[in-house]
Amino acid sequence: MSEATTTPAQTASAPASAAVSPSQAGPSRRADITVRTLQIVLALFLAVPSAGPKLVGHSTAAESFDAIGFGDWFMYLTGVLEVAGAVALLIPVLSGVSAIALIGLMIGAFITQLTVFDGENALTPVIFLVLLAVVAWVRRQKTAEFVALVRRRI
Q: Do 38 and 135 contact (CB within 8 A), yes or no?
């Protein structure tokens, strides 16, 4: 009978070590803080100097989108997508999904820079794409949680 019983210390420590395997563990505290800081910086950049001129219809943004050929509606849509992505980067469960969506936006910006503007600022979206890829990779567990949440609701 004594073999079948366990002490409270054994039962308390066993589930904690068995519940989280190394592959499921999140990033280290240092990596989490670093990526969270990166997310805030990216969100600020996307919301203010990137989306701001598009949403207020600044003349430089309007001229750029006229050169693209889609006009004002596309400028406003891009601005809204950037702000939505910036806000979602700050919401933990949406951070990974947001980074992936913004990577798509950066791919479009890169292609546009190459084809319409002769590569004048083509490096800018590439830099942001790389930074967003870091966020997406580190927050991949959050993306899995989001997908699981959506699947449960469907």
A: yes
% of residues, the chain, pLDDT over 70 = 84
Kindly tell me if the per-residue pLDDT of 24 is higher than 70. Answer: no
Closest C-alpha among 94, 97, 112, 106 to residue 131: 106
In this structure, are residues 47 and 86 in contact, taking their beta carbons and an 8 Å threshold?
yes
From first CA to last CA, the distance across the chain in angstroms is 48
The pTM (predicted TM-score) of the whole model is 0.83
135 Cβ neighbours under 8 A, 6+ residues apart: 35, 38, 39, 42, 89, 95, 96, 99
